[in-house]
Amino acid sequence: MILTSAIGTFGRYCLFIKKVFALPDRWSVFLRRTVTEISKLGVDSIPLVMIISVFIGAVIAIQMQLNIASPLIPAYSVGLATRDIVLLEFSNSILCLILAGKVGSNIASEIGTMRVTEQIDALEIMGVNSANYLVLPKIVAFVLFMPVLVALCMGTSLVGGYLVAVFTDLITVSKYVYGLQALFQEWYVWYGLIKSLVFAFIIASTSSFYGYYVSGGALQVGKASTDGVVSSSIFILLFDVILTKLLLQ
Amino acid sequence: MIEVKNVTKAFDGRTVLHNINATFHTGKTNLIIGQSGSGKTVLMKSLVGLLRPDDGEILFDGRNLLAMKQEEIKNLRKEIGMLFQGSALFDSETVLGNVMFPLVMFTNMGRGEMRDRALFCIERVNLKGAENKYPAEISGGMQKRVAIARAIALNPKYLFCDEPNSGLDPKTSILIDELLSDITHEYNITTVINTHDMNSVLGIGENIVFINKGHREWVGDMSQIYNTSNEALNDFVFATRLFQEVREYVAEHGTIAQRK
C-alpha cells in the first residue's frame, strides 16, 4: 500500500517536472521572475548562512581540538580537519538541510497559498502554464545561487575556526592557518559545489511539488510545507550517499 | 454563445452532474443558480476547462472544448475572463500589476500601451486612484472590481464569474451586479455567473439556469421566476424570510406597490 502510494507520488512528481520544464511563455517575464527569486530565496538567505557558518565553524574547530589533542597528532590537524569537514559535508549537505527548512517551507507555503486562494486556477484560466510560470524561476534561481551560498559558507566557517584560534588559547593562529593549507585537495571544493547543485534542485522542486498539489485550506498548506521540508531532507540525505560514492571513489 | 450538451460528471462513482443541457447567450447575463452542493461550481469549472466532464459537449460558438487539443484550449482561454469567488488576485502585484498581467503575458503591446489599457480598465470599474495599492490594502468589494478589470483587460468574448457577491454587503453586491451587467451589454460578452444570491437573480438574471441535485431543473428569466410551478425552484427562491414575507404579502394584496 505504502509502496503503491510512493510510486504514484513519484509518477505525479515526474509529470509535474515535465510541466515545469517547458519553454516559458514570455522570456522577459521569466528572467524578471528569476532575478526576483534569486533575491528572495538566495540573497535573503545570506545572513542565516553566515551566522550558522561562523558558529558551526567555531564549534568544529573547538571539538577537533578537544577530541584529537594528542602528542602523536600534529597541532595543525585541527585546521586540516575543520577545513575538510566544512568542505566535504557541512558547507553542502548540512547547509542544504538547514536551507530545506527555510527555503523549502517558504516555497511550499507560498505556492500552496496560491493554490487554495485560486491564484493558480486564475493563471490556468488565462492560459498560463502555472507550474512553469511559478516554479521554473524558483528552481533556476536557487540552483544558480546555491554555489554562492556554499562558497560563502565554506569561507565563513573557516573564519569561525580562525576566530577560535584568535580568541582562545586552544590552538595557535599559525598552526590553524597552516592546517587549513596542508594537504589541500581542490576537488573537495568542486565536490561540495556539485552536490549543492543537486540539493538545490531537490529542495526547490520537491517543495514546489507539495505546494502545487495542496487541496483544502490553511491546515493543508501547513502540512504541505512540512511534507516538503521532510521529503527534501530525506532526498538530500539519500543523494548525499549516492553522490559521495560516485564523486569520491 | 456557449452550448452545454448532455454534460455528465462523477467523482468516485458519485454523479454530480446528470446530462446537463443549457445555452448561455451572447450579450446577456446568464446565471447558474442552485443551492450549495447542487453542482453549479462543478458545472462552472467544467465550462472553463478546470474539470473535464465524463461525457457531453461544451461548445464555445461551435468549438467543442472537450475535443480541443492543448494548444487550442490555450488559445480559447485567451478569449475567457474569469472572476473567482475569492478574487484570486496576485498578492505580490499591485492593482495595476494585476490588471496588466494578462496584457504582459499575451500581447505584444509596449509598456506604455499596456499601462494605458490597464488604467482604462481600472477606471471602468471605478477604481481610479487605487492602481498602486496591493490587494491586501483594499476592501473585498474593491478586490472584486480589480478582478473584473483584470478579466476584461484582454477584451474577452466569454466572462465567467463564480459567486461574485460572496462576502459582500448588499449595497456592494448590487454595484458589482450592475457593473457585470453593464460590461456584458457594453462589450457584447457571453457572461456566465454562478450565484445563489437572489438579489442578483432578480436584478440581472436575463437567462437563468437552475441546477438542483446535479440536474437542470428549470430555465427562464427573472420575470418568470416568481410564477414558476417548479417546486424545487420555489423552495430555493423563497428560502429567505424576506422573500417569504413578500410572497405572503403579494398573495394577500396582489401587489407590493402600495406597501409603506
Features of this protein?
heterodimer; A: 249 residues; mainly alpha; 85% helix; elongated; B: 260 residues; alpha/beta; Rossmann fold; 2 domains; six-stranded mixed beta sheet
- What kind of sheet is the major sheet of chain B? 6 strands, mixed
What percent of residues of chain B adopt helix (DSSP H or I)?
25-40%
Helix and strand run of chain A: HHHHHHHHH
Mean pLDDT of chain A: 94
> Percent range for helical residues of chain A?
over 70%
CATH topology of the largest domain in chain B: Rossmann fold
* Morphology call of chain A: elongated
CA gyration radius of chain A, whole angstroms:
21 Å
Distance between the termini of chain A: 37 Å
Level-1 CATH class name of the largest domain in chain B: Alpha Beta
Unreliable stretches of chain B: none
Protein described:
The complex is a heterodimer of chains A (249) and B (260). With 249 residues, chain A is mainly alpha-helical. In chain A, 85% of the residues lie in helices and 0% in strands. Chain A has helices spanning 2-20, 27-42, 46-68, 77-116, 119-126, 130-167, 173-181, 186-212, 218-248. In chain A, helix 3 (46-68) runs antiparallel to helix 4, helix 3 (46-68) crosses helix 6 and helix 4 packs across helix 7. Chain A starts with a helix and ends with a helix. Chain B folds into two domains: 1-79 and 158-229, P-loop containing nucleotide triphosphate hydrolases (Rossmann fold, 3-Layer(aba) Sandwich), CATH 3.40.50; 91-155, no CATH class. Chain B contains nine helices and ten strands. Chain B has helices spanning 40-47, 70-77, 95-106, 111-124, 140-152, 170-187, 198-204, 231-237, 241-253; strands at 2-11, 14-24, 29-33, 55-60, 63-64, 80-83, 158-162, 190-195, 207-212, 215-220. Chain B has a six-stranded mixed sheet, with helices on both faces. Chain B has a four-stranded antiparallel sheet with strand order 2-1-4-5, covered by helices on one side. Classes of the chains: A mainly alpha (249), B alpha/beta (260).
